[in-house]
Amino acid sequence: MPDPAADWRSDPAPAWERPLIGEHPIPGYRYTARDFFEREFAHVWAKTWLLLGRESELPQPGDWQMEEVGPESILMVRQSDLSIKAFYNVCQHRGNRLVLEEQGRVRRFVCKYHGWAYLPDGKLDFAQDAEDFPQGNPCDSVRLKEIQCATFAGFIWVNMDPEAGSLQSYLGPIWDDWSMYPLGDMQRYLAYTVHVPCNWKVIQDNFNESYHLRSVHPGTNFTIEEGYRETQFDMCAEAHSRMIMHAGYPARSLEGEQLNKPLTDLMLEWDLQPEDFRGREREIRPALQQQKRKLGPARGYTHYEDLRDEQLTDYYHYTIFPNFAVSITADGFHFLRSRPHPTDPEQCIFDNWFYAAEPAGDSSPVMTPAGMKPRGEPVPHEILQYGEKSIGMGMDQDLSITTGQQLGFRSRGYEGVYLSGQEARVRRYHEVIDEYLQGVRPHGRLNTRPSTVKAIQDPS
Ligand code: FES
Ligand SMILES: [Fe+2]
Q1: How does pLDDT run across 424-447, given as a tens digit for each residue?
Q2: 93 lines ligand 1 (CB under 6 A)
Q3: Rounded to two decimals, what is the model's pTM?
Q4: Pair (352, 401) in one structural domain
Q5: Which of 20, 115, 224, 258 is 20 to 30 Å apart from 29, CA to CA?
Q6: Looking at the structure, do residues 326 and 382 belong to the same domain, yes or no?
Q7: 267, 284 in Cβ contact below 8 A?
């Protein structure tokens, strides 16, 4: 008879190692200067693993997806052996973009300029007047320029650096954490891409701290413990971070007050009566965990068996260097990604997507950060300008601070950050950016001392 107390699932997630962080300054020019922006692209974006595509978008050989990263455009193509290759989206004849659409299916990619045609594996298959090339028939030597590509958690990751190590070593402890969830089987129910007038790091900084919750997101405390003392903050040597926020009960600051939606809806969904917990608010979270453990598998949520109790209620929020943030729960994940504008340091592209678990036999609507969506219906990918329409209350609130902050970074009156302890991940991110800019990789650094890399100085 196994001892239930010995069940690892009742334990909280072990803490990660915590690199020491120095007094790294973060002045405004990092968000405004073109020189800094261009150096970042060359030394950070072109050297790191980037989460770019989704495997399920390319089910069959010849299916392709195109995504942009700053000035680059990357083609991801399903091969005849079902592997995926990634290429720069550029014709090797005279540099035309091969495709301008988001995705499609081809037998050959045909360039619209002079008609050169490439096979899905990148080989040039046809060139007009092939005999008229003094250097020889281009089909004998020309290929699309391939870049490193790997798959994990249902996503396609690329790295423009031919010398880069493996994706698994890049992700460090993220690999094991994410392997616990069926992330690759989850389906997209929200797909907003927004052009925002701020540097890409404004978005990323915001997802690297929860200090703003009380001021920017009032009401979060109805169902999440937002106090920093009860939140687990983790960083790893690979430069990524994790924040575990207890959820499934109101924050301590609301003890004794009436319970609110969406917590009461969640309780009813799992057969708990809110009135039974009057004055016992701290007991709601463990009760929800027990109910989900007991009832989940019969409702199709078989993956609950592989998760810790706390994962059944809590938010595991990750930031992956350089540009991906995600809040993962047992039932779905909120995909938050910023990408640089092709040329302007004061603009970026923000993806606000949501994926939900698909329990067998469940036809109930899906709760997303932008309201309920019918289950099983694909959502369109909407590309918007900032302010054009709501993309869900939480993200509307987050984006509402970005334009004012970007303007403030231009002010002579701003001398750089004055950070709290719970914002340490912001400083760590900028420290790692400066390490990359100076050719240092975070993996090699001892965690017993802060980085010795100096902050990049304002060139002006
Ligand atoms: S640029 Fe593509 S065929 Fe000429
Ligand atoms: Fe926020």
Answers
A1: 999 999 999 999 999 988 864 445
A2: yes
A3: 0.94
A4: yes
A5: 20
A6: yes
A7: yes
